[in-house]
Amino acid sequence: MSNNNKFGISSLSLAISIALAGSFASTQVLAAEEQEKLENVEKIAVIGSRSAPRSVGESPVPIDIIDSEDLRKNGSTDMIDMLVTSVPSFNSRAQPISDAATLVRPVNLRGLPSDSTLVLVNGKRRHRASVIAFQGGGINDGAQGPDISVIPGVALKQVEVLRDGASAQYGSDAIAGVMNFVLKDDAEGGSITVSQGEYYKGDGATTTIDGNIGLPLTDSGFVNISAQYKTADATSRSVQRPDAANLIAQGNTDVNDPAQVWGNPEIKDDYTVFVNTGFDINESAQLYAFGNLSSRDVVGGFYYRNPHNRGNVYSVDDGETLLVGALNGDQSSCNVVPIPKVTDANGNIVDGNVLTSQPYLDMLADPNCFSMNQIRPGGYTPQFAGTVEDSSFFAGIKGDIGEWSYDASAGMGNNKSTFSLRNSLNPSLGLDTPTDFETGAYEQSETTVNIDFSRFITIGALEDLSFATGFEWREESFEITQGEESSWIAGPYADQGFNIGSHGFKGFGPEAAGKNSRNNIGIYADVEGYLSDDWLLGAALRYEDFSTFGDTLNYKISTQYSATDYLSFRASHSTGFRAPTVGQENVVNTQTSIVNGDLIQTFIAPPTNPLAAFYGGEVLNPEESVSYAFGTVFEYENFFLTLDYYNIEVTGRIAQSSQIAVEEEDYDDLRAAGVEHPELISAVTFYTNDFDTTTQGIDIVGSYETEFLSGDANLSLAYGWTDTSVDKYDPDTTDAGKVRRLEDGIPAHRGTLTWGQSWERFSTTLRANYFGEYYATHADDTTEWGSEVADAAVTIDLEISYAVLESLTFSVGANNIFDQEAQKLKDGTLGELGGVYYESGPFDYNGGFYYGRVNYIF
């Protein structure tokens, strides 16, 4: 590792060749004095300003730069895990049993959802994932951000994270900040890495093979190719549910032990390829292109369906009698089958075995009558499967014309998630129901065209002001593909109270299928320069107009003042916005929700759908934000420290409503409004501009380098304090538990302290991760039954590497080496739904993970 590294990461070449078209206008011709400054620093960021790139220390806004070597010092191959340990106020959580959200891992920066952070690759806007995180752990409920786990670390030169509101510079989604993933651009050399690891419990075995190669494109260009292939076994942190254990004790031999698997999904055939190219036409023009092709298959579990009391499948609403259907449509001709009750060894009254009861046997003897117990006598646990396919391609030309630098580009991105459900039923089809279903697909597509210009200008006595301006056109579409008929159809027994569609994840029917699009244009101007030798001032203005809801104008002002050679102060103020995604405006789904420990079917509807509109749904509007930030930077020899405070006020914040019960007295009115079978819908949820919030926090980043133990040592700190308060919400569509989860669902305090030590061939990395108290919830249950305040925790990571040859390195390590246990469910809920830990934890509930890695560089 470099001895002069401010963040404990390898030195990098200047990144000024990366142009942020639609996100950044690169200035390639620097004034002589500015060039001299850049040559004296190692870390150059191309985000944070639409004008000249700046070093981390000289930036008027906080920026983190993490290079590929630092990212690799983590046992995970998931980009999200790599960044959590490096960036303050960046959080994520695992996703067990979370419907489509199992396919992605929502993240959040500075206490805001994943779609409030703009993601770029090589400075170009990255498309969103097609999956919407319906169960995103509070902050990310309903968020639709890009899936950054698709981007492999082997493809990256560095990651730049701007922790500051930047909508005026970059457009929608930049309320919390901007993340720019810079691809490798070497024209020679490469690497091959093989890693293998698993959890201490002996499951979750993960194998990753990745490689990178740089090739010359004649003498004037390069082609850099990166590829990764990964598989990961499922994990199980399950306990047998008491209801399932009781059924087994009463003689039901068709119940599995455990009845359900609660843990990470299985990931198969996870591959991704990134290609980055550039070609110098002449000294003043360069062609460039980059893109990716990725795919992965994911299989995860759902919750167990009890064969006695799962309403609208096995039982009527009261759970005391079986739901018995009649082939002739006359249910009164079938005998009522009560669930027998017995007293167990502890004196508790529990369900007996209905399968051996005389009323059930009498029902079986009647050829006109049936129950779903005949197909699944022990109940069933659906398995949710999905295939995610992701692709993108950008191409452009950049260069200089006189004193102007320009960058013109066009690109597209596509993400498609195809869903299927296994081991389930469509109860409304009766005994003729299939058990496996193809339920349809979501597809997100985006097209972007940019042209950007920048130059240095002089205004009066002010010389060498960096000026940038540009134009962007973008189109975004969200498409729902219809599932197979059996996954959504209302079968002949729907009118007898049997649930419609594949149970657990209803297929998309013809009423849900279709494609919705919108387009927008953006125009911006950005100017930045030194008003004196010590005072830097910048201003930006951006206008955007959307085809669906109108226009918006936002501004930003930033400044930095150097008090001494070692100490400087910085501040920023900006307005911002986030447009509702096309998916949030139009998505349709049926999910299983947990309320007071009970599973209910919740219909997710567009806010203008008749069902949603009946309970308060309205057309979505953009979020609006006002941000303030100020901080300080101290640099002295090998010591570097930044401290930044931020305050972000968001009005009209977009989120999913709580589950709103569909009441029996509303059935007739709902039918009149066009809602079919309202009696089979337990609750509805939809997107709404319900919230006004204020999020504030403090980020501290520091590092110190010295010689220690006859080697080079680097200490680095990343600490974040985040506090969110809900200033306003609508109690008709949002309950108090959801509000509390927004306010306290992530730890207010999170910190990472890393010690890196290196000798000639031997190196180690020791990292301590601190997670403060937080409001823990199980799935989306925010009632007292399923939530509590979780304790603070510390996890320790360790990696040891040895270079056998200059080009060959062996590494072993462990994340959470002391196997710190995640927060267990409180007494009274432990095991009730088959899990041991809360789903909302800030670190991996699976426990310690050990790994080995071999890296060859050529």
* CATH superfamily label of the largest domain: TonB-dependent receptor, beta-barrel domain
Shape: globular
- The name of the CATH topology of the largest domain is Maltoporin, Chain A
Q: Which structural class do you get from the secondary structure elements?
A: mainly beta
> Span between N and C termini?
18 Å
The low-confidence runs, each spanning 5 or more residues with pLDDT under 50, are: 1-42
Instruction: Give me the CATH architecture of the largest domain, please.
Output: Beta Barrel
Instruction: Quote the average pLDDT.
Output: 88
Helix content: under 10%
Domain TonB-dependent receptor-like beta-barrel: 380-817
Subcellular location: Cell outer membrane
Protein name: TonB-dependent receptor family protein
InterPro entries: Beta-barrel_TonB, Beta-barrel_TonB_sf, Plug_dom, Plug_dom_sf, TonB-dep_rcpt-like
